[in-house]
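Entry 14. Structure prediction run on the chain below.
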Amino acid sequence: MAYVAVTGGQEAIAASIALLREYRCHGDNPLDPVAMVNRMGLLIDKIMGEAGLYCPDHAALALLQSEGSVEEAVFLLRAYRSSLTRAYYSIPLDGAQMRLLRRISAAYKDVPGGQMLGATYDYTHRLLDFSLLSEHEDTKIDTASSEDEECNPFHALRVSDLLRAENIIVQSPTHAKSSETVPEDITQNPLRFPTPRSARLQVMARAESGFLGGLAYANLRGFGQAHPTVGELRTGWLEVNIDHPLLDGQTLHVGEIQVTEVESFFSLEEESQLEELRDDPLKRMERGQGDKADTSTNALQIGVGYGLTFGRSDQKAISMSIMDFSLEKKSEGILSDDEFVLLHGDCLEMSGFISHLKLPHYVTFQSKLDRVRSTRKDTEACHA
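Output returned:
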């Protein structure tokens, strides 16, 4: 696509940037990025997730610089990320080792280890709290107790481990752990189709949250074939370690990140078919005989969709788990199409392509006008 070169616009551009700075600095009370991290944690988590860079301070700075535009903040943070040198790859993190702050299951009421509601808006009244406008020191919550809870190392096994012990959960080849399998790195290599599961999960982890939620909602409403039970949703801290650069066989702790992890469970057999098999012993025997024995076993197992995002992000992690299963199942429909789901959900690509429409398209539009005028002229001449 070609554009007409615009000359003589430097003064206008400089004035536009100066005006933008004035808009950003409007008011007598400048915003503090540190306060933004503490007061707008969910927004900071969203920006970090879509940018693919875990750094709350830089995410707050990007949000401040962009006047609160999430798309622009993600653009700034991802551009900054691309300038950083990657010195090491971390050792794979295990969600089972998470220091839990929140853990719920919609599949088991009395899940071993207990359920922890943690900090959530799920049970709050959706009413404006005007007392926040006049919040004083004496009304602020003492966070000492919550900080003590965060320091308390509470761990619990995954709910899915209970089902794996019964061989009820399907272990797909791409989900199985293998020391010989090196996951794709989409920040270093271009996306190729068909995509491996590791690449799909990375793309969805950085996808625009609303877009991913819309696809998951479409799946639930019947445009796909995925309707899950949230087996487990957990939020907490994971330690990040790397191989020691000098001492072989030893690891080095470099920090920790807060993440939300979700495993959703899906039935691989239609409910009507399960009822039919349960009520008809002969059909159960037929399904378990011959070359179709393995197939029948899988058909009577539970599929798992996986989602993991930075920070506290229940909705996105659940949506990601739904779309992970949908793409892994490879059923018919656009919601199981890798290219459609993965290429259209990237916040940076999406906003960039839409924003390019504001650039000069004088020649292309004049060409459209010429074709319309010429066609109208020919049509009028035929009717004359």
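The first strand starts at residue 99 and ends at 104.
Filed with the rest of this week's runs.
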